[in-house]
Fold these 2 entries.
Entry 1:
Amino acid sequence: MNNFQYQVEQFADLRILRYQIPNFSELPLQKKQYIYYLSEAALSGRDIIWDQNNAKNLWLRSCLDSLYGVINSNDKGFEKFETYYKRVLFSNGFHHHYSTEKIKPDFTEAQLKGWIQALTIDEIRQLGEKSGEGLLGALIELMFDNLYMAKRVCQDEDKDLIVHSANNFYKELTQQEVEDFYKNKQDESDLQPVSHGLNSRLTKNNEQIEEEVWHVGGKYSKAIQKIVYWLRKAAEVCENKQQEQVINLLCDYYETGDLKTFDTYSIEWLKEQEGEIDFINGFIEVYGDPLGFKATWESLVNVTDQKETQKAAIISDNAQWFEDHSPVMVEHRRKEVKGVSMKVINAIMLGGDCYPASPLGINLPNAEWIREQHGSKSVSLQNISHAYEMASLSSGVIEEFAFDETEIALHKKYGAIADNLHTHLHECVGHGSGMLEVGVRTDALKAYGSVIEEARADLFGLYFMADEKMLELKLVSHMDVLKAQYNAYIRNGLMVQLARVNVGANIEQTHMRNRQLVACWVLEKGQENKVIERMNKAGKSYFVINDYAQLRNLFGQLLKEVQRIKSQGDYAAAKALVEHYGVKVDQAIHQEVKERYSQLNVAPYSGFINPKLSPIMDADGKLVDVELGYNESFLDQMQRYNRDYSFESNL
Ligand code: ZN
């Protein structure tokens, strides 16, 4: 396993990596069976995220599959077509997975025309078109018309966010209509409010607004039936009674679409802490909807990393201590922090919105009242972050953007430990901390809510990393770990992450906004005392931290303010903070970062190939073993998924 190849290929702005599952073969058969069935359920919902991202995505995927089959690999445009094809596959649709802007092909309309001529009329009809001309026209509009469905998630507050978003959550509605629709649904006095709109598409027919609910018998019925089929099989071989109950509740929810059942499921899922294997499967995160109502479908199957989890448990066990020592206003501290659990896991199967670009940490459930009354389950993905780390050590990014040898050495020594610890603190005590003032609505910050929330969790982690408590709890062996983390955070927030933004554009992505917000705020507030200093060496800019203690202080001050904004639902302050620090980019720095980064030839985004799980059946068709394979290429895997897990169609 020492020679495991973490990075498999690179194209456009993407790197394709692989992750390992340690000790899989030693698992007992029943656990392997459980994993296998959950993994099939994880792959079965793939079409849902494609359709949620855009109503034409599944159709486009079929077109690209067909065209790829007929284009000669000697054709001059073949490589350009293949790159576009792979980019679309990577993004689960024709909008960039991160920027959400439409992906532009490098081939020409004329080349496309030539390739379409190689399709038979039957193939064209199967794509829902009467003629090659018709197909060409439709594809040209989709691929080459800059105004047509330009952006999946519009974040520009000056525009109608719904009208200008190309996602498939709303049909023929304006932002005002959507906001009014859900405002009327909300009952302020309900102490256990369901997340209205989480699992439906909103449409307008003859002035009548209707919800198309995603459940068996409703929208996405075919894919959801498959998911339920595999979940039911998983329930037969799960590890304990609680898991069985959890899976049955999830199936009930998928069958009815009832959000109350989803909340019940979420609470029971939260309570299940005994098993070694766990999963996420459902409509979970709302980043794909600029208004934050609609959830994209995602799945993750995972196994606990016992050794790392013991370390993280120390943080969970001390959750109350963190809360009591948090620099936020006393009235915004939670009196009793409940059920904050922290698990370090190894991913086994990524599905839906978690694939191929994977999260590094997850904290669920999302419903605020459940978090307050029952706590949340928090995981960090050890083998995924390990794969990133292994792939990045050779990239040269640290050497380029760190100021001197000391900073580089510090990173090589403590970078991985520091980043793990920050993720643990962010996911566990960060998101789980704090409370709202009475009467404040959870959606009061509207489009700024998620940036503020991520900033809050990041700041909580940054603040406590510098606490002596870290030594006392034996979470670090040396306080230099915090220096490695502070260096990395400032380096990234002020410079490195800009490599992902087009020159001239604003920052739109939530996590990038929050990182720049935090980094720019402390840079500005610490300017007088030169807490962070901008240096110049051989014509290159660097940001160097002079005073770590003062920087910690500034993180604490900002945490207090960000918590106040959330607790009081101060929309105006959230807007001012995000717009002032998190959105606009310093043009000169941006240009410089782009130039320096491009010389390194490292693609800024990464995603993963899943391992292939092959069932071994006996003569009676009974599953007797599961074999793990790492040999599939990116395109092999994507095409296999296109073929074997294609249950929805928008032809
Ligand atoms: Zn977070």
Entry 2:
Amino acid sequence: MLKGKHIILGITGSIAAYKAAYLIRALVKKGTEVQVVITPAGKEFITPLTLATLSSHPVISEFFSNRDGTWNSHVDLGLWADAMLIAPATASTIGKMANGIADNMLVTTYLSCKAPVFVAPAMDLDMFAHPSTQQNLARLRAFGNRIIEPTSGELASHLVGKGRMEEPDRIVSVLEDFFAESALLKDKKILITAGPTYEKIDPVRFIGNYSSGKMGYALAEACAERGAAVTLVSGPVSLVARHPSIQVVRVESAAEMYEAAMEAFPSMDAAILSAAVADYRPETMSDVKIKRETTSEMTLRLVPNPDIAASLGAVKKPGQVLVGFALETDRGILHAEEKLRRKHLDFIVLNSLQDAGAGFQCDTNKISILDAREHVDYPLKTKQEVAIDIVKRLAVCWS
Ligand code: CTP
């Protein structure tokens, strides 16, 4: 999967820089072309000579070559790359990346890079745990960058904790997985529904729910990054889709979401239905603001909305993949299995509101994936990481 791929390896000033030598060797062995970009501090930890010898390419560090004044084009480099990997990434470089402080060749290249970016942090446990580092990492995740979490163990300071850069072999397999998924998702058309729906009562009031849309948007980014063309039918949320291969169709009500999804689905290879669709809407919508009646109670009569997942399941053609979600408060497996069958889904993602850190509004989620044969439980992860797990499972449908 890595054969012939172009990878920019960014190296920064951490003791883990010595592992970059192993990383380059492992990548080159797989047939990858590696171009090293190193920060000035990185050169204190490992020599450019070692890195140039292992990668068979001169190492880039400065904006201009000291020898002949030639300009190192970060723009060309960004376009050449199939992926950029920053390993090790120090707290300082992570901070600069998160805030666009382009005072060295590495960060400038990062800002010009159109390819997917992977970041493998390495630092002392307290630096890693500091809210500043965590906030910067959260920003990088929000930009769509993939954080390869550090592991726990003895650190250079001899303290024990989380901050050790992931081992080179593991980093290489993260990249391999990414390119394997990309090979399966490339040029696939994927419909994703996301967010809540609002069912109007009158011009100023609606029935809605707490869905933030984060899971659906993370799925859209993960699919698009792997080469899929995504149609994201989104209920009212404040999120924006970053990737150019995501076409956003904004809707408000379940009826509008139904129309948009039914229209798009025939030309799709898959649909992932992560929206929290209101099951009912008011029978009538008042054209004027309903005034408070002081004397009587108010009754709203609700009528059912179409079930988008079940409707797509009914018209699904052979080869089309349909993925649903089930957010449950009790007897999750039972309810999810029933929805899997009733809506003709290929698999269903179950999240339980009983799990801390799962469900609406949070940045994390804890899921199980159920299909007709088995169910697999996943640990608590960020919604971006959960999206990758779901995309991996989707890719299996085409393998
Ligand atoms: N769904 C949908 N259209 C609806 C209701 C749900 O497309 N009108 C989709 C959701 O996006 C999700 C799956 O169906 O992928 C299950 O949604 P959920 O609300 O859990 O299921 P319901 O069938 O509405 O069952 P209930 O609310 O009774 O649990």
